[in-house]
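Quick one:
INPUT:
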């Protein structure tokens, strides 16, 4: 099974990767997998991110169907600033969505400064449509570490809303609470389809810990499927858990 299959992307034309701990790697992996299936793929962001690797064309500004399908995949941004690609607006995204030649749109909709965990600010992530599959990503490598600015973006928000304290040991329960809080990615439950992606499960111990987090997530209304992965490795998919049964 490939990552795009685990995330059921045959059912969703548009997916937004949010959270932390592997969004960018997942974006490019999904782009490659879908392109290999003959799907015309557009990669983009609604925030800002580093430019794509050289083999993926970077298109800035407005583009028609011819330029968006000249290569596969392509990366679309609105401009450049400080060495990063600026995200597109919801209006620009809607224009791409209207093109029948585009089969899949994969969006990085959140920034995390490379940290494994995050509590989003009120202005993020930018999700433009209730039809978008929202994939909250979390880095399992943080489990067992002491909670701090070195492993958690926007830590003051998590402390304020969840009563967490810097220096606490990060547990599976803490990760699940962070992901599901109604001011975090829980705000999309019941609005968008949501499939969490627990990444960095690249050792047996981390995979076991990821399954603990997944079990807690599946107890939340609005989550019926959780994907466990190590997207930076040669075997990116490590498991799929669903409400009531386990697969892979």
């Amino acid at each position: 099974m490939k990552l795009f299959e685990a995330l059921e992307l045959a059912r969703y034309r548009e997916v937004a990767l949010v959270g932390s701990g592997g969004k960018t790697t997942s974006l490019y992996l999904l782009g490659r997998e879908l392109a290999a299936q003959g799907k015309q793929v557009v990669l983009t962001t609604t925030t800002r991110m580093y430019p794509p690797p050289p083999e993926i064309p970077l298109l800035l500004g407005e583009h028609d169907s011819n330029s968006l399908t000249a290569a596969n995949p392509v990366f679309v941004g609105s401009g450049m600033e400080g060495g990063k690609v600026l995200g597109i607006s919801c209006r620009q995204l809607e224009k791409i969505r209207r093109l029948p030649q585009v089969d899949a749109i994969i969006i990085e909709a959140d920034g995390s400064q490379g940290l494994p965990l995050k509590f989003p600010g009120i202005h993020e992530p930018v999700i433009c449509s209730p039809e978008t599959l929202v994939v909250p990503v979390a880095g399992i490598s943080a489990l067992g570490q002491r909670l701090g600015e070195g492993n958690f973006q926007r830590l003051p928000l998590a402390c304020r809303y969840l009563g967490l304290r810097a220096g606490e040991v990060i547990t599976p329960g803490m990760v699940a609470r962070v992901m599901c809080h109604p001011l975090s990615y829980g705000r999309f439950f019941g609005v968008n389809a949501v499939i969490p992606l627990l990444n960095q499960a690249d050792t047996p111990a981390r995979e076991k810990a990821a399954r603990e987090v997944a079990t807690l997530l599946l107890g939340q209304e609005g989550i019926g499927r959780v994907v466990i992965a190590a997207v930076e490795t040669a075997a990116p998919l490590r498991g799929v858990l669903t409400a009531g049964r386990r697969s892979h």
